[in-house]
Specification:
295 residues; mainly alpha; MetI-like fold; 77% helix; ABC_transporter_permease; Sugar ABC transporter permease; cell membrane; membrane
């Protein structure tokens, strides 16, 4: 009887939190799924049910394909840069710096993560500027010709990847630092007695034991990469603030279909596709790390 009362008290205690979570998180997802099955036009009173017609139209939409390809390249590019770089930087801070200096390095690396997206993107837009940017000035010392970072289709995607990686790195390093501090010191001492070098200990001890941290960081980084918007919008916009066309991403495509073309149902179908992609990739990451852990 006492156990049942405790369980009931716990459920009642978390019920307000669950209700708020359902209203702010679950209800918008359900509503988006409903809108994706309708021809939901802001300017029209008639919003008929059309089933999977919006998704069928997506299959032949060139702009959607372009946005999906660009977003996928950016997301995996950020993931490929952030994970190994964050792990190495966290190891260097944890093992190679003194306790007083480590706080400075942690703050310096984490600072880009808390900087507002738009000011940070504007600063990087100046860095990537073809005529006045310091990046081309630096490359000129090595005999490399100035590059049109924000006008060339390939270089503009690389620019967005660099900006997103710069912002994601601080959070990933902080999480890896927590992981390194929780690793048992006795294993490293035993490996050192057996003649293992620091690199070998890092490769054969740290990386396998940090798999749960890697899973969490990779999922968060990949989800953030697929939701990229402000970075691509600001970097690719012209002097008047009009959005550029060099870096078209999924969120930008959804916003244009919703508020410029007034096709809310069509934009909702894009959001559903994005949700399914992120969900599938997350499940794949979980399964891969579980299989490696068993092996």
């Amino acid at each position: 009887m006492l156990r049942r009362k405790r369980w009931l008290f716990a459920m009642l205690a978390i019920l307000p939190t669950l209700a708020i979570f359902a209203w702010l998180r679950m209800f918008p997802i359900v509503e988006t799924l409903r809108l994706s099955l309708h021809k939901w036009d802001i300017l029209s009173k008639n919003k008929p049910f059309i089933g999977l017609a919006n998704f069928q139209e997506l299959m032949g939409d060139r702009l959607f394909h372009e946005a999906l390809l660009n977003t996928t390249i950016i997301a995996f590019g950020v993931l490929a840069i952030t994970i190994p770089t964050a792990m190495v930087l966290a190891a260097l801070i944890h093992y190679r710096t003194r306790s007083r200096a480590s706080g400075f390095y942690e703050t310096a690396i984490f600072l880009p993560h808390v900087v507002s997206l738009v000011p940070a993107a504007m600063a990087w837009k100046w860095i990537f500027d073809a005529r006045l940017g310091p990046l081309n000035a630096l490359l000129s010392f090595f005999g490399i010709q100035p590059q049109a970072w924000l006008f060339d289709p390939t270089l503009s995607i690389i620019s967005v990847i660099v900006l997103c990686s710069w912002q994601a790195l601080g959070y990933a390093v902080l999480i890896y630092l927590v992981g390194f501090k929780s690793l048992p010191v006795s294993l490293y001492e035993a490996a050192k007695l057996d003649g293992a070098s620091g690199t070998q200990s890092f490769w054969f001890l740290s990386i396998p034991m940090l798999k749960p941290i890697t899973l969490y960081v990779s999922v968060v980084t990949l989800v953030s990469g697929f939701n990229v918007y402000a970075q691509a919008f600001v970097l690719a916009s012209d002097a008047q603030g009009a959005p550029g066309r060099q870096v078209r991403v999924l969120v930008l495509d959804m916003l244009e279909n919703s508020f410029r073309n007034y096709r809310v149902g069509y934009a909702a179908s894009e959001a559903v596709v994005l949700l399914l992609i992120v969900l599938v990739l997350t499940l794949i990451q979980f399964s891969l790390l579980r299989e490696r852990g068993r092996a």
